[in-house]
Amino acid sequence: MKNAEIFFKNRLLKFLLISAKQNQNLPLPEITRQTKVLFIRLNRIGDALVTTPLITAIKEKTGCIIDILADEKNYFVFRNHPAHRKLFVYEKGVKPTRELIARLNQENYDIIVDTHDDVSFTVSLLCRLIQSPYKFALQKENAGLFSHTIEKPNPETMHVVERVLKMSTLFGFEADTETARVVYEPEEESKQKVKDFFHSRFPESKFIVGVNISAGSEARFWGTDKYRKLILELKKDNFDVVLLATTRDLKHAFRITDERDKIFYTPKFDEFVAVMQHLNILFSPDTSTVHLASIYSVPVFGLYVKYNTNDMIWSPYGSKFDGIITNAPTLMGIPFDEVYSKFREFLRLNSVTV
Predict the structure, then answer these.
(1) Do 230 and 292 lie in a common domain?
(2) pTM of the entire structure?
(3) How confident is the model at residue 217 (pLDDT cuts 50, 70, 90)?
C-alpha cells in the first residue's frame, strides 16, 4: 500500500508540473507595504522555528503584509510571531484542503513562498492551486511550479537558519546572518506558571542547568543510568538541576531522579519555551529544544545522531554551543565519561561555579 501511494503521488506530481502555467519570465517584483505574501511551512516544530528569522527579516526590510500557512504539528510556533497578519492551518483531507485553497485564493496574494528544503507532494499541490503571479522557492525537482527560484544552499556546509535566510535575495536584499535570531514569544500565562515553578524550587539559585531528556524519537534517548549519573555529578559540582521532559517521557524521568518536584514536564509547547529563560545552560539531545534555547541566548551542550547523512547538524543559532556527535543510529553507545568530561569543560567556560 505504501509503494502504491508513493507511485500515485509521483505520477500526480508529474501531472502538476506538466499542467503548471507559472510565468518564469517575469522580473522580480517590487515589494511594498501593500504587497501580500504567503509563507508556507509545514512539517515539524524545528522546521517552523528555523523559518522565523526569514519572516522577521522580510517584514523588517520591506514592511509587506505577511500571512503564514502552517499545519497542525507546528502552527503554534507562528501564533505570536509579530510579523504576521493571518495564520492558516493545513488539515489533511480532500474537503478541508479544498476549503483552505478557496479561502487562500480569496486573499489574492502577490507572492507565495515555499520555504521547504525538499520536494513535498502536499506543498507542491498547494503551490499549484493557490493563485499568485509570483511563486518563490529553492531550486528543486518541482521548480516548474514557481516563477522564481534560487540555488539550494549546500546543507553540508551551511547552517539551516542561513540556508532559509538565503531566500531573502528573492525579495531584493541579503538578510543579515549576524543579527538573525529564532523568534517565539510565549503567552503571559505560561511565563507566569513557569516563573512560579522556578521561584518555588530554586528560590536562591544563581545557576541552573537544564537537562532535557526528550527528543523526537527513542533513538535520541541517551539512557536512564547515564542521565541519572549526569545529574548526580552536576549536584556534586554544586549546580542546581531541573530535569525537562515531555509527558510521554515521564516514565524515564521518574527513574532518573528521585526529586520529582524538580522535574518540569508539560504537554504545552508554550510552557516548555518559557522554561528556557530561567536556565543558564541547557543539556539536550533534541534539535528543536536547542533552537528554543537560542531565543534567550542560553549556551547549549548537545548530543547528536548524525547517521547516514553529511548534512550539518542543527545546532543553536546565536548561542554558545558544544556537544558530542555520533555516526551510530542511536545515542546509547556514547560513553558517560566522554560526555561528562566535555560537558564539564563547557560548564567551566560558561559559569563561575566549576
Answers:
(1) yes
(2) 0.89
(3) confident
